[in-house]
Predict the 3D structure of the following.
Amino acid sequence: MMSLVCEEATHLRADEPRHENSVRVLVPQTLVQTQRILLRWARDPTTALLALVLPICFLVTLNVVLGQQISQITGHSALYGTVPMNALAAAIHGSATGAIGLIGERTDGLLSRLWVLPVHRASGALSRIIAEVVRIVVTTLVILGVGVLLGFRFERGVLASLAWLVVPVIFGLAWASLITTVALYSAKTFLLEAVTLVHVLAVVFSTGFLPVDQYPRWIQPVVAHQPMSYAIETMRGLSVGGPVQSPMIATLLWAIGIAAACAMPMVFGYRRASMR
Amino acid sequence: MTAATPARSRPSTFAQWWVLTVRFIIPTLRNGELALTIASSVVFTAGLYIPLSHVMGTATKGVSSSYAQYIMPLIALQAVTFAAMSTAFRAATDSLQGLNRRFRSMPMAPLTPVAARISAAVYRCSVALAVALICGHVIGFRFYRGAEYITGFCVLVIVVGAVMSFGADLVGTGSRNPEAMTPLFILPPLIFGLLSVGVQPVRQFPHWIQPIVRNQPISQFVDAMRVLGGDTTPAAGAVTWSVMMPTLAWLSGLAVVLVPVSAIVLSKRQ
């Protein structure tokens, strides 16, 4: 790798030349790029609005159609399953939007432009991860707000509520790595339709849609062990009460597994996209 | 035109439409989109029938001979809507890349590109419907009337798909924002689908929402498709003018609104 030397003014001691890959430059450069991505989202109100309003409509719909039956079966409000499910589904959609944006920037040449500049190699990917976290937290909070209006309550204290918020972030980041990897290797329309179908399957075969014993027996293992169900069960445990530890471990294992499987292809894909 | 200038060849509108349609269809054979269209019908069949058959089965007893018979119209509609919705994404991409603008500078009718996108959508809808009917047969759906009713069922679904793709095309062209199309793809069809008589009879819904459920277009389409499909139980009802009327009114109403609006959107300077 060529070692470029940069002398930019963003640093305290501009007289001392710094290597482009030093940790000192990583933080400010990541922040600048994060800010850029977040600003882009903020200036695209259609996308932001659709990404927030539609999951809320879906949440209300599910409550109208299935809410009563589920509360009769489980004994507690269906919201403890549907609110997490919609938060997680919104995270999936958000990452698809992010991935399409990334492909657009590859096509526009922005990625290769950044590649030839003396910026920290990790800052591009890192800024995307941070922006993704911000987005997931915002959408989760909005959906949670509507859930609270409908009757969702935290009954396990402040720490559990904060942990509840962290679950979609973990889940969403794992998904984002998967979707970004697919995006880097496939056509845009293919990506969009594939993500949509996976999203439908993940939603209707999850324990947030219906309690697991309402599914036919042969598919129950799939419903119980898919990543979204584990994340929903963790969040259910953290809000209304119930087992937390085992679904949490399973969620983490799924997330780590997905991220680990995608890490290398994603890095190579990103590099390839940058060097076009 | 004077005699000095050689007569310009005027390509026929039909040829232009055909070239543009093929432009949309050929790539689907190569890049996996056809496989996705087929997969989508399977996904909707499995995703609606497997989870809901138990929960909704008791509510629909007496109305329908089996839950497969009950849910099939909605499965077909969802599959076709999915195929139609991707038109929005293509239209937004075309619009963003300046392709529409380029088309307008060429000697072609303004609606030709739209017509081509919709023809491509009809092709995808037909594939989706065919696969959905096969999947429906597997879960136990059967047609109980003659061939003309089967044809009516299929034509109705395809027409719904065509009108939806027209609307989707308009949204995509107007927004010029492919990224915004992601959630539009799936959630509105699912919301309308779940809030319709396609999943359960109208009396199972909470009181306050029943008027909306009963009268929204998807419910009307489902009702029409249900009588066209027929059933063994007497509750199935006959194909009467009063059942088909709202569906035809919705479809022609949508077309009457969409055509002039799309003419305005497409003629706007981008």
